[in-house]
Amino acid sequence: MITPELRNFKWISIAEAVSFLVLVLIAMPLKYAFDWPPAVKYVGWAHGLLFILYIIFGAIAASVHRWTIVQIFWAMMASLIPMGPFVFHKWIEKQPK
């Protein structure tokens, strides 16, 4: 059974991962290939806010579920890698409750 804390963390992490991909695959090429810096400014700002929410909701989920240091480490590492949060959630859902 998925708890509200884990569900909220999952939704924030999906949004954070998508914003990271949009930043890297769309906004940055717009900035450097088409000389349009506002793309990175606004998408980067949104991604930064979602990253902060990812950390907050991750800490809440880790506290409620009593994650180990290894699980917390991989949650934080996942936020730094494109598509990382998707892989992390598949892994964390397979962990014993």
What does this entry look like structurally?
The protein has 4 helices and no strands. It has helices at 4-34, 38-65, 69-78, 84-94.
Distance between the termini: 9 Å
Strand content: under 5%
Shape assignment: elongated
Oligomeric state as shown: single chain
* Helix and strand pattern: HHHH
Give average pLDDT, whole number. Answer: 93
Helical proportion? over 70%
Structural class, from secondary structure content? mainly alpha
Count of DSSP-assigned helices: 4
Which radius of gyration do the C-alpha atoms yield? 15 Å
What is this entry, summarized?
This protein has 97 residues and is mainly α. The protein is built from 4 helices and no strands.
Chain-wise SSE layout:
Layout: H1 4-34, H2 38-65, H3 69-78, H4 84-94
Helix pairs in contact: 1-2, 1-4, 2-3, 3-4
